[in-house]
Amino acid sequence: MLQQSNAADQQQQNSAAEQRSRATQHSDAEQCSRSRSRRRSNSPSTSLAPALAAAQQRRATQQNSAAEQQSSAAEQQRSRTAQQSNAAEQQMSSR
């Protein structure tokens, strides 16, 4: 009889411990989920505006870079033309 009573007590304790464990796990999962959704709602990536602004910034940077390259190419062309002109003048003057 005493063994049955001890066994019943043990079972109740196990059951209570299991319920506490489940409640803790549930609470942890819930907190984690809440924390995740809070991070998502605070995160600027959920809004398209920052992504759009970043894309526009990249495009503007690329356009500026292309314009600089064109300007540099034009400058090099002018420099070559000037060198050719100087070479032609030297040839004329050496004759």
From TrEMBL:
Residue spans of biased composition, Polar residues class: 86-95
UniProt-recorded name of the protein: Uncharacterized protein
UniProt region (Disordered), positions on chain: 1-95
Comp. bias regions, Basic and acidic residues: 19-33
Source organism, top-level taxon: Eukaryota
Low complexity composition bias: residue spans: 1-18, 42-85
Species: Endocarpon pusillum
